[in-house]
């Protein structure tokens, strides 16, 4: 057993289910999702849009609105504390200080009615109890740290006066300045150009403390290769494969994971030859019986259409939920 396995996880999620009541019926966005993060570990949560990645991430700091959302889980433990049993006041102490989020759309996450300086100092005043003048100075220093020029002037700017890249840098500063133990980064560079994306990820890597864990939600496998040590693959509300970065990239065991990797553009790919995964992601209102991927899987068997596969061991810290692995176990 490795030293990492002997440690207690910083975050442990077991059998998380998130559902939403809608006018059209009940939507299951996350179904029996289980995973963990060790201290200082960077984990990527990948999958197509709409598979439940963001909902899973928002459930950890309990940011799912209720109603219409409903969270159920055997446990969500953060550093040994039961998140689900915490009061609203206790959760406010956790959010921002111990668990920070970098949201997908900074223009939506930042208030358009308040200046940048006020939004940044709010967390410092609440969690670190700094005097207002000192909080202003700390926030200004963090703007400079994340590469924003003329930080004293930018403190007085409104979000709409700044570019998308600058807004995202501000979100990173707000997420890191309280030295959180866990960072949840939900598609943090989706709206940015390629050059700015690289700068943002370099910034997160440089600013993040060594003992801070990160859950990175993305559909970009290239980003996961650069940023993460371990990968969770999600499809249609369920985790279908987990493993180290090398195990997932070099020896994918679930047909969906293999399809994602084949769809990555390569320099040798001829025009018009990019491989895709046939079919469509099933509607969350009507997930199929059995394996959720069976309608798109080239290896689907009768068993796949009748029951859901359990996780099979594929190697050290590598599991996949696929009946193809039953004979190998």
Task: Give structural notes.
The chain is of the alpha/beta class. It has helices spanning 3-6, 53-59, 88-94, 106-109, 116-127, 132-145, 151-154, 164-176, 194-207, 221-227, 245-250, 255-262, 302-306; strands spanning 11-22, 25-37, 42-46, 69-72, 75-78, 81-82, 99-102, 182-186, 213-218, 230-235, 238-244, 312-315, 318-320. An eight-stranded mixed beta sheet has the order 7-8-9-3-10-11-13-12, with helices on both faces. Strands 1, 2, 4, 5 and 6 form a five-stranded antiparallel beta sheet that branches. Strand 8, helix 9 (194-207) and strand 9 form a beta-alpha-beta unit. Helix 5 crosses helix 6 (132-145). It is globular. The two termini are 20 Å apart. The relative contact order is 0.13. Mean pLDDT is 88; it is low at 1-5.
